[in-house]
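I'll show a record.
***
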Amino acid sequence: MPTVIAVANQKGGVAKTTTVHTLAEALTERGKSVLMIDLDPQACLTYATDSQPDSLDETIHDVLLDRCKASDVLISRDGPDLLPSSIDLAGSEIHLLTKTGREFVLKKALGEVKDDYDVILIDCGPSLGILTINALTAADSVIIPFQAETLSDRGVGQLLETIDDVRSYTNGDLEILGGIATMYDARTNLSKRVLAEVQETHGLHIIDPPVPRSVRVAEAPGDGVSVLAHAGRSKPAAAYREIAEAIEGLL
């Protein structure tokens, strides 16, 4: 039975794209058939997987506008497949606002390819707009990456309120798999305190272990690979592999 997971947090810079890319690779290592969806107009996931958004004739933007099918833009890879994005996706927000059933457009589009995969991971942009609502409506569950720093608590709280709204109106079965602490520095009291506060304030299950801060993670997209390929023995790579195993156990 395929499962769709939205990776969301409207706060930017919390490693959503890194989390989608690396977990997709780690789940593929574990024998899963995985599809990544880049639902961010900045197209960082598309870049990170060594694709060039500006050279693509069609992307997820064209799928949402019903100009083509998801299978028409799907990029088959040696690893998890990709539905790519481009800056054109920013225009989808305006188009969808005038469309009847706008919250369900992505869910409908995925119907054609969903059964070809075990896991579909959606990289949401840093907003709570209609694209993110589409992702949450199409998803079975949500993962919330957050950086263990000041303001993370506020961002998580806002997202949880949006998830409650989605449950009320478009996806009553939406579950929260948990949060993932990224760029974690175990040497600081701040990181430890924020991690504890997010759990205590919101009752958010944290999928262990926290992913440690490392330049290896930042270097990987420049080579068009995840940290698993760039620095497979690094601490972040080990953490993401453990998280992938934990997620597999939650599905």
